C-alpha cells in the first residue's frame, strides 16, 4: 500500500473544491445545491448498491463495533468533561464539544480511503459503523445537552423523533434498503442496477469536491485553543483507544479491526457542525476543528495506514 498514492487523490479533489469556492466561482447557494444533490442522491445510490452487493460473512465480527463505539463514548464523555472543567461550558456546549471530539467523517473521506487502502472487503465493516453512527452519537449528544430538563417522557419522544429522522434520512435509508435486498437475495433489475451504478460512480469525487468547498465556509478564527483540544481528542486519542481495544485486548479479523482504526483517524465530520447549529453552541470551535482536523488527518491517516498495511 502506497500511503501517498491513497491520500493524494482525496486531498487533491477536496483542494479543487476549496479553490473553486475561495475564488468565488461557485456561490454559497450553488455549493448548497450541489451538496444537497450529493447527499440526497449520489451517496445514497452508492451506499445502496454497495450494501446490496457486498458479501456478508456467516460470522459477523461484532466485537469491532463494540470496541469502536465504546471508544467513541469514552472520548465523547472526556470531551464533554474537559469542556466543563477547562472552558466552563454549559451542558449544550459540553455536548457539542464532545461531539466534535468523537464524530468521524466516515462517509465522505471514510469510503474512498477504506476502499483504496483496504480494498472493497472493508466496505462491509465500514457500512456497519456508518449505519449506527448518527443514532449512537446523536442519542448521546441529546442526553448530555438536555440532561437538566430531560424526562422519561420527552426523552422517549426525542428518541422516536431521532429514529424517524434517521430512517427517512437518505444515507441511513439507503443502507437499510440495501441490507434488506442483500439479506433477502432479491435480484435488482439489471438496467436499474446499471443506472444506479453510473450515479454511484460520481458520488465520491463529488462529495470530496463539496467537502473542499464547504471547508472554505468553516474559518479558523477564535477559540483556537478549544478547537485544537477537540482535534487532539479526535485524531490522536480516539485512534489510540480503538487500537488498544482492537489490536491489544480483543482478537478479531485484522481487516475489520483495521477498518475501525482507519475510521477513528478520520477528521471531524460536518454533522458535528450541524449539531452545534442545532443547539447554537460552540459553532466557531467546531468549524475550526473541522478545518484543522481535515488538514491534520493527512498525518494521522498516514500513520494509521502505514500501520494497518503491516497487519492485513
Describe the structure.
The mean pLDDT is 89. The relative contact order is 0.19. The protein has one domain: Up-down Bundle (Na+/H+ antiporter like fold), CATH 1.20.1530. It has helices spanning 3-22, 28-53, 62-87, 91-102, 110-118, 123-145, 152-168, 170-184, 190-201, 203-217, 224-249, 254-264, 270-279, 283-308. By secondary structure, it is mainly α.
What's this, in brief?
By secondary structure, the chain is mainly α. The protein has helices at 3-22, 28-53, 62-87, 91-102, 110-118, 123-145, 152-168, 170-184, 190-201, 203-217, 224-249, 254-264, 270-279, 283-308.
Task: State the main characteristics.
14 helices; 312 residues; mainly alpha; Na+/H+ antiporter like fold
Secondary structure blueprint with pairings:
Layout lengths: L2 H20 L5 H26 L8 H26 L3 H12 L7 H9 L4 H23 L6 H17 L1 H15 L5 H12 L1 H15 L6 H26 L4 H11 L5 H10 L3 H26 L4
Helix pairs in contact: 1-5, 1-10, 1-14, 2-8, 2-9, 2-10, 3-4, 3-6, 3-11, 3-12, 4-6, 4-11, 4-13, 5-12, 6-7, 6-8, 6-12, 11-12, 11-14, 12-14, 13-14
Q: CATH architecture, please?
A: Up-down Bundle
Measured on Cα atoms, how large is the radius of gyration?
A: 19 Å
What is the CATH topology classification name? Na+/H+ antiporter like fold
Give start-end ranges of low-pLDDT stretches: none
Q: Would you tell me the structural class of the helices and strands? A: mainly alpha
| Strands, total number | 0
Q: Quick check: average pLDDT? A: 89
Distance between the termini: 11 Å
Written as H for each helix and E for each strand, in order along the chain, the element string is: HHHHHHHHHHHHHH
Characterize the main sheet: none
Given the structure, what is the number of helices?
Answer: 14
